[in-house]
Structure formats: structure tokens, C-alpha cells
Write a structure and sequence with these properties.
Blueprint: H1 2-34, E1 38-46, E2 49-57, E3 63-71, E4 79-80, H2 89-99, H3 114-139
Antiparallel strand pairs: 1-2, 2-3, 3-4
Helix pairs in contact: 2-3
């Protein structure tokens, strides 16, 4: 019984260490991409796997960088996705929303994909930036 408890304790320690390195990788990627433009992050979790995406766009809404982490273990790391580079966030959002199926149950709200969450995050930031620019133009 003591050996089982010791093994369980060691597995928890190993999992904690691996989680630490995954979080460290996340923070490094976010910091590295932050200075390139407007950043949006989306997270999707479901039973068995998950996805996290970091999108960066310029001030016009054109995607300039994208990295995604997929998987179900702490060994997952961010990988560059160049297929989204150059696309407009507003057009891509419309395309994603058109592909989504309406929910069968009105009570249950469908989960948003990590990409859609990141796009909406950038969209809100750009709207905020444009609103602040309009305010400063009126003051001047």
C-alpha cells in the first residue's frame, strides 16, 4: 500500500513538472508574438483533446502569424500554421460561422472553436482601438 501511494505521489510530481514546462512554452509563445500586432487567443476543450490557438493580425485585420497547440497530453507544443496568414479576420469569421451547424438543443449552447474565439478577441481589440482613435480625433 505504501508503494502504491509513493508511485501515485511521484506521478503527480512528474505531471506537475510537465505541466510547468507546457505553461512556460505557452507564456514564451504569447510573449514572442505579442509585439507583432494585435493578438487573440482561443481555447477549446472537449473530452479527450483540446486546442489552443494564438493569432496575430495587423491593424487592418489581416492575419500575420498563427500558432496552434493540439492534443491531449502535456507533451503538446505550439506549431506554426501558415495556412491562415494573409487572410482577413472578418472574412474568416463569416466563413467559420457559415460552417457551424445549428444546435439541436436550444438549452445547450455550442462551444466555439479556438479559432473563432481568437478571431472574436482580435475583432474586439480592433473595435476598441478604432473607438479610441475616433475619440482622439474629436478632441484634437
Amino acid at each position: 500500500m505504501e508503494k502504491l501511494a509513493l508511485v501515485a505521489f511521484l506521478l503527480i510530481i512528474v505531471q506537475g513538472a510537465l505541466t510547468y514546462f507546457q505553461v512556460k512554452n505557452y507564456k514564451e509563445r504569447v510573449a514572442a508574438l505579442r509585439h507583432q500586432g494585435v493578438q487573440g487567443i482561443g481555447v477549446y476543450k472537449s473530452a479527450g483533446h483540446g486546442s489552443m490557438i494564438i493569432l496575430v493580425s495587423d491593424k487592418t485585420g489581416r492575419i500575420i502569424a498563427c500558432e496552434e497547440m493540439k492534443g491531449m497530453t502535456v507533451f503538446s507544443r505550439f506549431k506554426k500554421r501558415s495556412d491562415l496568414n494573409g487572410q482577413n479576420i472578418y472574412d474568416l469569421k463569416k466563413e467559420l460561422l457559415a460552417r457551424e451547424k445549428p444546435s439541436d438543443s436550444k438549452k445547450k449552447k455550442p462551444k466555439k472553436s479556438s479559432l473563432l474565439q481568437a478571431l472574436e478577441s482580435i475583432e474586439k481589440q480592433l473595435q476598441r482601438m478604432n473607438g479610441e482613435m475616433e475619440k482622439t480625433e474629436h478632441v484634437a
